[in-house]
Design brief:
The protein is mostly helical. The chain has 20 helices and three strands. It has a three-stranded mixed sheet with strand order 1-3-2.
């Protein structure tokens, strides 16, 4: 036997071992790639002994894996480790097996369509079922080795769409979650989840449990890899399926996570989408309960603004917090402090001007407190002053009434000296403070 054919047989044997492990445990929830030197440590921690005192090979306690298999795969407690030394040959043989099964599956289907004989059609249909299982088996193995192999994902979509069983859809969610366990930023895996959820949404009256599990998965993936845009993008996509109660629940639930990771703007972006959807629900609901929901929406915004201010004072110089405040302030002015919309129900005894003035008084107090620089060598204080001043200038540009109040109350001279000392590279912005005061005096 040639060396090439021997190597090929070993690779096929590896694939058979790999697929056997996958099929034997439906509850595997994590896959990882580990160096061969780590196997001994893992076995020792798990209390696995591979050889007896006389040196004879032993089976594992569960009798599923031999010592030879342990050198390539580690499978215990629903965790699967794959040796990095076999990744390349295992990937190649898995890819070839999948592509071969896919070609064989497509060929008899064409023959079945062209043939008019019922016996032939029945025989081909049975053969196709067998090939279908092969395609699903090999594609699963391949995707656990290469998360972004698009042909494999598309083949699974095609076969799953022909079945349209709820249990099959749930299996696809489980597979993509398993892929994400080793590749949390896999675009193909997240896209596959969205496709499955769309299929489920067309056949499921309640999406509450599905959405809950998706939200938990995103948080888990976001903790595993920082700044995981794809995970948060998936969570943002889910917002369109949420009810009013789910929106409020998600807003409360994500608050703790965001408060501990204030540099991750993705979570704040998610909170903004939730709040916009809550606002949209109000404008779409004009029934008997709308007035109660108005008060609830007002409280959501007020609570978020107060919480944002606490974070800004506690975590100095964090731009994500100031960007979030711009969003909150702009929509507060548009829908809670103007002569239209929600303000007519909430602040009937207070004029719009007084409401805006009260809000701006608080923002200017925040500006003054953030402009104090106790330690000029600590750059975060300089960034805080810069973000605060930029925020006030931005707000005065967005809302004309805010500009008038800023012109009346802002002691621009003293503030400008502080800001020029703290952030001289932004002097062109601080010059605008003088121009605002001059225009007011004129």
């Amino acid at each position: 036997m040639s060396q090439g054919s021997s190597f090929k047989e070993k690779a096929i044997d590896l694939l058979n071992q790999f697929e056997c492990i996958i099929e034997s445990d439906d509850y595997i929830d994590e896959v990882g790639f580990i160096h061969s030197s780590q196997f001994a440590t893992l076995n020792k921690e798990a209390g696995i002994s591979l050889r007896s005192s006389d040196g004879c090979e032993l089976q594992l306690e569960d009798g599923t894996s031999s010592a030879d298999e342990i050198a390539n795969f580690w499978h215990r407690d629903h965790k699967l480790g794959i040796s990095t030394e076999i990744l390349l040959p295992l990937y190649k043989v898995a890819r070839n097996a999948f592509m071969c099964a896919l070609r064989q599956y497509e060929t008899p289907r064409k023959s079945s369509v062209e043939s008019g004989d019922e016996n032939i059609v029945r025989h081909i249909s049975s053969f196709c079922d067998t090939l279908e299982r092969e395609v699903m088996k090999h594609s699963k193995a391949l995707l656990l080795l290469s998360s972004d192999f698009g042909t494999a994902w598309n083949a699974r979509k095609l076969l799953v769409s022909r079945k349209e069983h709820f249990s099959v859809f749930m299996d696809e969610l489980a597979l993509s979650a398993l892929v994400l366990s080793y590749s949390p930023k896999s675009e193909q895996a997240w896209c596959h989840r969205r496709w499955v959820i769309k299929m489920i949404a067309g056949k499921c009256l309640s999406m509450h449990e599905v959405l809950r599990k998706e939200s938990e998965l995103v948080e888990k993936m976001a903790e595993r890899s920082k700044m995981n845009y794809r995970a948060w993008n998936h969570r943002c996509w889910l917002v369109s399926y949420m009810t009013r109660e789910q929106l409020l629940h998600e807003l409360n639930k994500s608050r703790h996570w965001a408060g501990l990771r204030i540099a991750d703007n993705s979570c704040f972006h998610y909170r903004r989408l939730l709040m916009l959807k809550i606002l949209e629900h109000y404008f779409n609901e004009q029934g008997d309960e709308s007035s109660g929901y108005i008060s609830e929406t007002y409280q959501v915004w007020k609570k978020e603004i107060d919480w944002n201010e606490e974070l800004i004072k506690h975590y100095v110089g964090r731009e994500a917090l100031w960007l979030h405040r711009r969003f909150l302030s702009l929509y507060w002015m548009r829908h809670f402090a103007c002569d239209h919309g929600l303000s007519t129900h909430i602040k009937q005894q207070t004029s719009t001007d007084n409401h805006i003035r009260c809000f701006m008084d608080n923002e200017l107090l925040l500006l003054n407190s953030c402009s104090i620089i106790p330690d000029s060598e600590f750059e975060d204080f300089q960034a805080q002053a810069s973000h605060a001043a930029s925020y006030i200038l931005w707000l005065s540009k967005q809302i004309p009434k805010c500009k008038q109040i800023v012109q009346e109350k802002l002691a621009s001279g003293n503030l400008k000296i502080l800001l020029n000392k703290a952030c001289p590279d932004r002097s062109f912005l601080w010059d605008h403070l003088d121009s605002m005061e001059v225009s007011h005096n004129l």
